[in-house]
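Hi,

I'm pasting everything inline rather than attaching a file, because the server keeps stripping attachments. The sequence lines come first, and each chain or strand is labelled.
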Amino acid sequence: MARLKARARRRKRLRAFPRWGNLKNMIVALLVSLAVQAAPATVPPAPSDPIEADWRTIPDDELLVMTLAGNRTVVIRLATPYAPEHVANVRRLALAHWWDDTSVYRVQDNWVTQWGDETEKKPLPAGIAPRPAAEYDIAAGFRPAQRMTASDAYSGASGVTADGWAVAGGKPGAGSVAEGSPGWLAHCYASVGVARDASPDTGTGSELFMPIGGSARRLDRNYTIVGRVIEGASLLSGLPRSDAPMGMYATAAERLPIVSVRLASDMPAAGRPRYQYRAANNPRFAALIAARENPKPPTIGLGGADVCDVPLATRRAP
Amino acid sequence: MARLKARARRRKRLRAFPRWGNLKNMIVALLVSLAVQAAPATVPPAPSDPIEADWRTIPDDELLVMTLAGNRTVVIRLATPYAPEHVANVRRLALAHWWDDTSVYRVQDNWVTQWGDETEKKPLPAGIAPRPAAEYDIAAGFRPAQRMTASDAYSGASGVTADGWAVAGGKPGAGSVAEGSPGWLAHCYASVGVARDASPDTGTGSELFMPIGGSARRLDRNYTIVGRVIEGASLLSGLPRSDAPMGMYATAAERLPIVSVRLASDMPAAGRPRYQYRAANNPRFAALIAARENPKPPTIGLGGADVCDVPLATRRAP
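And the predicted assembly:
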């Protein structure tokens, strides 16, 4: 039954490119469904719908608030447990207000938007680790990073990563990964990675990028991911592309000024943004993944869900 | 040896986010390498580099030229063999100049840019098939669409798809796919798909979309792909996102006017754009795929290449 509902929802989701006439019908259907949902006794929540207890507070020191010219705001959740040294650098840079008056200086089509100090000459504040550890590969063992199935990554209470990140999580007994091993963060749209030179330990966290197109799995465990944009990603993805080498904006006029970057914990308590994330260590999230699975053989697919196709929900705290 | 070179090149490619200082070094290195490449006797072409014979002419009636406001041009190659009925509709629409004065009316972040007639009320020209066949699934058999490995899709002369599209091609003896079966087109960045209502046979080809973010494999064989943007994709991907439902631009001012859409074969011969594509049925392309493969177990990956990470080259005819 739950399975059937999940399939029904997937089918709905596949109707992804409706035209206007259909959109009107959908709005009508939405209003009808809202009316139906007002009668909970007859329509119990689907297993993939979050309940209130699934929402967890994101700590203030994991929220990075970037204000762009034009009073546009991008909010990043920091991935503290996955890249502790780089995240420590990012926190110090924010506390020093180092990014103020820097810019978004690179937009390479189908690749990345990148920001920081385009001159690379701005001195870093005291306490910044110049060569943090290689935190792009912290998994205890090796696991296929290319796909994640409902039956391994999110099969239930055990072995499930519980922090709401896009991870290829550990499964008890799968390969050489011990239960509870952290897995790693995948490069997906809206991930925030550490730009660096050719040598993998040369990124401090001062120059950051966000994938804006199709991300290749070959980036995973190769670049350090320090967070994920949870609000305003479209402000970074919707910028004009540069035809210059590497997509670097060729002129100052193209660059988008960064007014400030602040840790929420460094802002006046009254003005802090407050966010919650949807926990993944529960059967409702497992059902959500199941609903995202590709068809299995002998139909048309390999089964499994595309790791970047898993919706990771956050919301402003009610 | 070839394998080692491919690995060396892959390593280079992974250095994808250099900073300015490194960019300068790269430019110097590029100049040096150009100097070296001027001495072909000492540096033979790598097996993945195309030779002149790998470049094939794209027929004029497979080139769709869309001129946007501001004299910006998007060029689409039509996928004639994969969706013949939909492509026939597209050709008729172009020959009737039907798209003139329509618009790009939808930009949904991390999903699609869509264009055509946003009112859906503009009458279609005579001869348009109102419900073309379901050309989103034409493969003779079933194959995993999620991954493509150098050793199956592009292993050599036999079973290799030869048209330079992003396809999960057939391999002799693999599963139930017969040699020469066409495979199918994957939804990748810059693919051009047919928008439709919920019912899969409701898209005529008048409303088209291009994926602009991470594309999910679950779209493959579900929506009809009629082509691929081979020039100017960034003009469609770099547009401001809409926050309105489905990413539809809410106001006329947001919509980007389409001045005209023409088949190259319908343009004066002297003014036609001429393009070539890189053929894929050769060992040089197979080596390119091999260089794009993810690491195999027991290192960090599953092996195989991400289907959307395979670079499909086109160029203006010299």
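Residues 1-42, 138-182, 297-302 of chain B have pLDDT under 50 and may be disordered.

If the labels don't parse on your end, tell me and I'll reformat.
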